[in-house]
Amino acid sequence: MSMIIKKRQIILSALVLALGSAVFINWYFNKPQASSVGAAADEVTQVSYSTIGDAQYVNASAASEVKTSDLLGSSRVSRNKAHDEAFEKLNDVIKNPSASQSAVDAATKSLTQLTNVIKLEADIEALIQTKCGFECVALINGETAEIACVPGSLDSTTILQIKEIMLKHTDITPENITIFEAKE
Question: Which pLDDT tens digit goes with each residue over 61-97?
Fold first, then answer.
């Protein structure tokens, strides 16, 4: 009997400890964040409570970053939608029992090329973000490529880095690579 009580006490203690840990972790990651707002001569420290739906003040650069991020995001969504539509059409041809063997072979080849392009675009975007430190959208269409970058991110060094990435990972010639900053 004494052993059963000890096991129950140990289990109860472990559960209380786990619950206490969960409460602490929840508090730690959701506690109010103190932010410092500086004025010319004096500084005011405010505590901002983050609640869904609360209004937040943003400065102009933060607003433009959001707008640019939305622009790149919408470009990425449009590109992915076009890829998905092409993917569906090619799959329809492949799955169609009345399609000729040459049509199925051509659709299979095009589907493989589309898959390779999708992977290449994602790889290029990841490499540019890793190497240059900013977001971009890569559009590869046959022998041409266009890279849309966030405003204010391009200088001669980053352009060279992007071209180096493109030349290393694609067969596209330098004159067919267009690099530009997205408009705000």
Answer: 444 444 545 777 788 888 888 888 888 888 888 888 8
Q: How many CB atoms lie within 10 A of CB 127?
A: 19
Helices (H) and strands (E) in the chain, counts: 4, 5
DSSP string, 72-97: HHHHHHHHHHHHHHHHHHHHHHHH-T
CATH number of the domain bearing residue 136? 1.10.287.4300
* Phi, psi (degrees; rounded to nearest 5) at 179: -120, 125
pLDDT digits (tens, 9 = 90+) for 35-50: 434 433 343 334 444 4
DSSP 99: S
Beta-carbon neighbour count of residue 13 at 10 Å? 10
Give yes or no for residue 25 having a pLDDT over 90.
Answer: no
Q: How far apart are CA 170 and CA 126, in angstroms?
A: 15
pTM confidence score: 0.58
Task: Answer yes or no: is 81 within a domain.
Answer: yes
CB 165 within 8 A of CB 127: yes
Question: Is 157 part of any domain?
Answer: yes
Are the C-beta atoms of residues 135 and 167 closer than 8 Å to each other? no
Residue 1 belongs to a domain:
no
Q: In sequence order, what are the beta bridge partners of 47?
A: 34
Residues spanned by the domain of 79: 62-181
